[in-house]
Design brief:
This protein is 48% helix and 8% strand. With 147 residues, it is mainly α. InterPro entries: Ribosomal_eS19 (IPR001266), WH-like_DNA-bd_sf (IPR036388), WH_DNA-bd_sf (IPR036390).
């Protein structure tokens, strides 16, 4: 009998990596020209070392919207934020750049994975997005059980 597998049932790192590879392979995500020079936050000194970082950020946001819908860009700026190093002064928390997050959410909306919640605000997962993410989670689960 077939079991129902959701995103919650698989390892987050494996899911994000698999979904990022899927997004890159399909070619439906439009990558901006600034992706190779953009930093993910103002407190970072360098851009990400992984050239496919935008796919991983999109996959991470899809998973986060799946698990807890209704959050907006400001919430995700806090989620991806870190401590800013202030030299000899104490570290202080700083939020991530909202432009990257907003762009990733727009790409997910173009893919019909997420949509804006008109009642409460923020982003929620669509039925198509839930089906696609659960399908990828099922593939990961079956591959892991086969081994």
């Amino acid at each position: 009998m077939a079991t129902s597998v959701t995103v919650k049932d698989v390892c987050p790192q494996e899911f994000i990596a698999t979904y990022a590879r899927f997004l890159k392979k399909t070619g439906r995500v439009q990558i901006p020209k600034w992706v190779d020079i953009a930093k993910t936050a103002t407190y970072k000194e360098l851009p990400p070392s992984n050239p496919d970082w935008i796919y991983y950020r999109i996959a991470t946001l899809a998973r986060k919207v799946y698990l807890r819908g209704g959050d907006g860009v400001d919430t995700y700026k806090k989620v991806f934020g870190q401590n800013r190093r202030n030299g000899v002064r104490p570290n202080a928390f700083a939020v991530a750049n909202g432009g990257n997050i907003r762009y990733c959410l727009k790409q997910l909306a173009n893919l019909k994975v997420v949509e804006e919640d008109t009642v409460k605000g923020g982003r929620i997962i669509t039925a198509t997005g839930r089906r696609d993410l659960d399908r990828i989670a099922k593939q990961i689960f079956d591959k892991k059980n086969k081994q």
